[in-house]
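Bench notes, afternoon.
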Amino acid sequence: MILSEVREYVKERGRVTLADIVLHFDSDPESVRPMLEIWIKKGKIRKEMLTSACGSSCNACDTATTEIYTWNGPKAA
């Protein structure tokens, strides 16, 4: 997995969870987040956090499933 592959994966899908990226690249969140951070700083990707979908505030959800990354530019052709 290289930096441009992560960018292309998010660009092609438009919006993905951290868990999706980790699964696709057979990696771990601690390896992927720094790469995503580079694209966030460049303004190409935006990070969002989902609020609790179940309505509770127990915070039992895995952060990898609630961390969303969105492509912040033109869609892939």
